[in-house]
Amino acid sequence: MAEFLDLESQDGVRMPWNVIPGTKQDAQNAVVPISAVYTPIKHFPSMPVLNYSPLRCRTCRSVLNPFCIVDFAAKIWICPFCFQRNHFPPHYSSISDDSLPAELFPQYTTVEYNSDAAVGPTYNNPSVPPVFLFVVDTCVIEEEIGFLRSALAQAVELLPENSLVGLITFGTFVHVHELGFGAVPKTYVFKGSKDLTKDQLLEQMSFFAKKPRPAVGVVAGARDGLSPESISRFLVPASECEFTINSVLEELQKDPWAVPADQRAARCTSTALSIAAGLLGACVPGSAARIMAFIGGPATEGPAPIVSKQLSEPIRSHKDLDKDSVPHYHKCVKFYDGLSKQLVHQGHVLDLFACALDQVGIAELKTAVERTGGLVVLAESFGHSVFKDSLKRIFQSGDYDLGLSSNGIFEINCSKDLKVQGIIGPCASLEKKGPLCSDVTIGQGGTSAWKMCGLDKSTSLCLFFDVVRKETPDATIQSTSNQFYFQFLTYYQNNGGQMRLRVTTLSRRWVAGPESIQLLVGWKA
């Protein structure tokens, strides 16, 4: 067990097998699958951060690593994945046995590149600061409103000064608050039972009052159709809007619409989240933005109600889900599945703070939270210490912060005798198909790249692999070629706004023949 922990502390990777069955049949005979649990941005005090671009193989695009074969005289390195011979660029001209770059040191199997050039070609380099959009449920009792008001005011004080802040409140109707003009409070009100398209939202919120709408193309941020002045009406720097947002929070009241004694409150959670996603998608696509939803009960209004307004209809239970006796469930899951795809495309995160004695519909909402790498906090009340301490922890800085990062892309490369079956974890497939993809799919499969909208220092992914080598190599070949390799690439924007690329390269060995399972069991023990 000590060896497993040592390997994990070096690279943030734990594998159930540190030697792998050498053939497909042997792998099928092993009960525990060939897999790895990887923590992409785990903190390593001794990990080098390199302020230059990574050197990539021209065939498979893997990054230079300690397992590459280097010819110092010819200034050539051989990729361990595809065996392509690559020339070193001119700035590596001084490389020698005694003068190695950090990425070739044997102990540096995990390195991080801090450079704009480290960003991959499919990666959208954001130019805006982090964005926090608060979506607040007002269909709760006055006491809960008071707790929420206090917690949100404290959260605003803890926000980074350069971050942008927005506020949406909802009950029977959805209120989008214009914080950019603090002298006169102004809100845009939308009917909770109606689902709006992005174009309708932009039109009704007067985004094109001063600047005409582009005739063609997609409206997405200041570079593609929106004026910075229109965006700054709803997303304001935290250092400039503290007084305005605190004024709005002080006047925050319970939803004024009367609720009959035999009915639940008209809570339009799905409409509010849809408007929040549409607003961020139009204003700051590809940025480090988080929708932070504070919910105090089940949705009863809008395109995805969890339960009807009538109290005579009980909210679905686990038994109802098992029996598929759930009239609203499938419609809700379909809606939030679509919302999760929208958020993943935009690169935004959904965090959920559900504080109520009743159910709030996490089963329906979980897809959108899981695929975007969001956080879920459950408590009985907004005054409970679990909620208050968790909210503080999100904005905490220093040695014990969560290390919240965003806009991640995770890619994998491995030796030709292995294929990737898929990943289980907070990510979404980027549909990058290729020779590395296995026909067998587990979790998010059929791809070798995944989007991670939100991740932190403890976020982990479980990867599953398929051994495709069918015949057992003879003893002579096996003794010289029993090594195989993985390389994990994680592009992300850290909580300081810097673009990073972390590269972890691993080597393990094959074991083949009739005694392979016994050897595996012995190694595991």
UniProtKB/TrEMBL annotation:
<feature type="domain" description="Zinc finger Sec23/Sec24-type">
    <location>
        <begin position="54"/>
        <end position="92"/>
    </location>
</feature>
<dbReference type="InterPro" id="IPR012990">
    <property type="entry name" value="Beta-sandwich_Sec23_24"/>
</dbReference>
<dbReference type="Pfam" id="PF08033">
    <property type="entry name" value="Sec23_BS"/>
</dbReference>
<keyword id="KW-0472">Membrane</keyword>
<comment type="function">
    <text>Component of the coat protein complex II (COPII) which promotes the formation of transport vesicles from the endoplasmic reticulum (ER). The coat has two main functions, the physical deformation of the endoplasmic reticulum membrane into vesicles and the selection of cargo molecules.</text>
</comment>
<dbReference type="InterPro" id="IPR037364">
    <property type="entry name" value="Sec23"/>
</dbReference>
<protein>
    <recommendedName>
        <fullName>Protein transport protein SEC23</fullName>
    </recommendedName>
</protein>
<dbReference type="GO" id="GO:0005096">
    <property type="term" value="F:GTPase activator activity"/>
</dbReference>
<dbReference type="Pfam" id="PF04811">
    <property type="entry name" value="Sec23_trunk"/>
</dbReference>
<feature type="domain" description="Sec23/Sec24 beta-sandwich">
    <location>
        <begin position="406"/>
        <end position="511"/>
    </location>
</feature>
<dbReference type="InterPro" id="IPR036465">
    <property type="entry name" value="vWFA_dom_sf"/>
</dbReference>
<keyword id="KW-0862">Zinc</keyword>
<keyword id="KW-0653">Protein transport</keyword>
<dbReference type="InterPro" id="IPR006895">
    <property type="entry name" value="Znf_Sec23_Sec24"/>
</dbReference>
<keyword id="KW-0813">Transport</keyword>
<keyword id="KW-0479">Metal-binding</keyword>
<dbReference type="GO" id="GO:0070971">
    <property type="term" value="C:endoplasmic reticulum exit site"/>
</dbReference>
<dbReference type="Pfam" id="PF04810">
    <property type="entry name" value="zf-Sec23_Sec24"/>
</dbReference>
<keyword id="KW-0963">Cytoplasm</keyword>
<feature type="domain" description="Sec23/Sec24 trunk">
    <location>
        <begin position="128"/>
        <end position="395"/>
    </location>
</feature>
<dbReference type="GO" id="GO:0008270">
    <property type="term" value="F:zinc ion binding"/>
</dbReference>
<dbReference type="GO" id="GO:0030127">
    <property type="term" value="C:COPII vesicle coat"/>
</dbReference>
<dbReference type="InterPro" id="IPR036174">
    <property type="entry name" value="Znf_Sec23_Sec24_sf"/>
</dbReference>
<keyword id="KW-0968">Cytoplasmic vesicle</keyword>
<keyword id="KW-0931">ER-Golgi transport</keyword>
<keyword id="KW-0256">Endoplasmic reticulum</keyword>
<comment type="similarity">
    <text>Belongs to the SEC23/SEC24 family. SEC23 subfamily.</text>
</comment>
<dbReference type="GO" id="GO:0005789">
    <property type="term" value="C:endoplasmic reticulum membrane"/>
</dbReference>
<dbReference type="GO" id="GO:0090110">
    <property type="term" value="P:COPII-coated vesicle cargo loading"/>
</dbReference>
<dbReference type="InterPro" id="IPR006896">
    <property type="entry name" value="Sec23/24_trunk_dom"/>
</dbReference>
<dbReference type="GO" id="GO:0006886">
    <property type="term" value="P:intracellular protein transport"/>
</dbReference>
